[in-house]
Amino acid sequence: MRADPIQRAIDEDLVRVLYAQDPIAFFSHWFSIAVLVAIYWPRIPSPPLFVACFGFYAAANCGGLALWILNQRYPQFFSPRDWIYLHALRGVLLYSAPGLAVWFAFQVPQSDLPLLHTVLLVTLAAGVFMSNGFDLLNFSTAIPFLLFPSIVLHFGSHTFDRTILAIVLAFFFCAINVYAMSYRKLFRQVVQARVDQQYLAESLAAQKHVAEEASMAKTRFFAAASHDLRQPLHAIGLLAASLDDSTATPAQHAKTAEHIVYNVEALNQLFNQVLDLARLESGVTQVIRLHFRLSELFERVGSQYRPQAAAKGLALRIAPTTMVVHDDPVLLERVLSNLLSNAVRYTEEGAIWLGFRRAGRHTGGFIEVRDSGIGIPADEHERIFEEFYQVANPQRDARQGHGLGLPTVKRLVGMLGGELQLRSAPGRGSVFRFPVQAGDAGGIVASLNQAVAGGPSAQGRRVLCIDDEPSILEGLASLLGRWGCDVLGARDEAEALAALTSGFVPDAVLCDYQLAHHRTGAQALTAVRGVLARAGHENVVTLLITGDMASAELAALALQGIPVLHKPVTPARLRRTLEMLWQQAELDRGRALATTALREGEAGGEADVARDAAGDAAGSSRSAPGGSQTRSGSEPQK
Ligand code: ADP
Fold first, then answer.
1. From the alpha carbon of 375, which atom of ligand 1 is closest?
2. Which residue ranges are recorded for the region named Disordered (predicted)?
């Protein structure tokens, strides 16, 4: 993976080093031309050939300088590799002239000329080694031209001295090749170390930048959060103090109390929003996909926001759809609630439109929330998804929201596997949309509205509640009692197990996560399930309730699909979760019965009875929705 950047870095360094030597080489070659002309001057063999050869040498030298100037002026003109090829070509042209010119020395019957010329060639070869040795191409194209003709001609002379000289030259040729090889290896290591260091520095700088950004975002988050939390607290403090005022009339006291309640509600809402976001961040929220009719969900959220829209003189239009989707209705409802609440808040006239569009998709489509409101400038399209960011609320007036809705929506849509898209411009309204997967009408277990309103399924159910806090046990007993449940409270695991052995077989076990004596709800539930399973009661619904958010164990439970509810748990949320879990349990029971009966039927041909039993238990014999019926979400809040 790293080979390419390193090769490129090596090439870039090579170009720098190769070309850096060229001005010196230019003067050295003039010196070499002058020396060669001087030693041949007294007896120039074949003058026209000699002139042509040295003319070519001089021209190649000037060409080399021109290439250097081009490289200095326009380094981007060629890629580093191409600059290396051009330099190698320059080497071939430049070194072939003096290398081949040694032939002239052997044309003159004067014994010291070949030696003198060879000394000059060895000097040039040493220069090539120094300046081009770290590049195989430049080195191996220049050196043979310089030395081979000389080696061959010395060998061909058949005299002892020349043969020795040829051997020495050949040895020299081999030696500089070996040295150049280690030279190149060293060069590569140096460049690699430099590139590694550069990578390290860059990645450290990037990490530092990310850490700084995160720290700044955190600071902004806390500054905004503490401001927004302080405001209602401050107001509550002042209002509470004014309750002491004995001169105030009962009507004034009542008004003050009303303001206190309003501020407490605002505080509660903000807490819920912050906790919601933190819960989404901590990864304990579970996605439970069901097959359901989108129109039912649209109707539910529509009925919540229609009065608000009507109060502002806005029409809330819901496009009719027969679409069945496979998604998490609770999380989806939170998304739509946030988007619709914004649409109502930021629209002064016109209409709000909620609908489903195929938009070219075969296996699903997009849910769209559209409004004809104030719109959002393009340069704010990213920032509005930051926590506590609001486009136009510099005084942070709590009545205009807190800037937590869209960050929550973005995370929720991400959890559901989609991406939130926004189209908006000032004065031209806004469109928020996100994808949903098509579902299977055959997989619908129950109507959404039925699940929320609660069918008769809570009536007569036996519920075991485990909590070390007596007030919570009391609260649960009273709530579940109102739903018609038969409730038994246990302060710890031991009391719960004792209740089971005394014959109480629950339909659901609700358990707090943090129990006394360093026991967790997960451990207590395992023990309870064990006892129930041994007694043949496999399908008992269990539900953990916790105030923790970042515990690794909770995250693990969420991954395993163990149902977890996060405090504060509203009655509606508890009811809805229990109903869903019971429905699922009944469906599982029905399917298990059907399977057993089918097996028996294969042997005895009596499967029909069991299939009927399954149908009775599940309300149908269709397949169950995917995933277990677990929930750690919360209700839509805005
Ligand atoms: P809040 O609505 O509580 O301020 P959000 O996170 O939901 O917080 O929205 C952030 C900002 O995005 C809002 O302050 C508002 O400026 C802008 N915004 C959101 N939805 C719309 C909309 N439908 N039309 C215009 N502006 C919007």
1. 25
2. 599-638
Distance 416 CA to ligand 1 centre (A): 21
Nearest to 635 by CA among 430, 333, 368: 333
- Average pLDDT, stretch 251-278? 83
107 Cα–ligand 1 center, Å: 94
Whether residue 227 contacts residue 270, with contact meaning beta carbons closer than 8 Å, is answered with: no
**CA distances (Å), 554 to each of 227, 286, 513, 544, 548, in order?**
31, 11, 9, 10, 8
Alpha carbons 95 and 61: distance in angstroms, whole number: 9
Contact (CB, 8 A) for 177 and 143: yes
Which tens digit of pLDDT belongs to each residue from 317-374?
A: 999 999 999 998 889 999 999 999 999 999 999 999 999 998 777 788 999 999 999 9
Q: Of 159-173, 278-292, 546-560, where does mean pLDDT reach its minimum?
A: 546-560
Amino acid code (one letter) for 45: P
Query: Cis peptide leading into 568, omega within 30 of 0?
Result: yes
d(CA 550, CA 282): 6
H-helix or E-strand spanning residue 431: strand 430-437
Cα–Cα distance, 449 to 444 (Å, whole number):
13
Q: Name the residue with the closest Cα to ligand 1, atom 8.
A: 403
Q: Bridge-partner residues for 510, per DSSP?
A: 465, 543
| Single-letter residue type at 308 | Q
Q: Round to whole Å and give the CA distance between 122 and 118.
A: 6
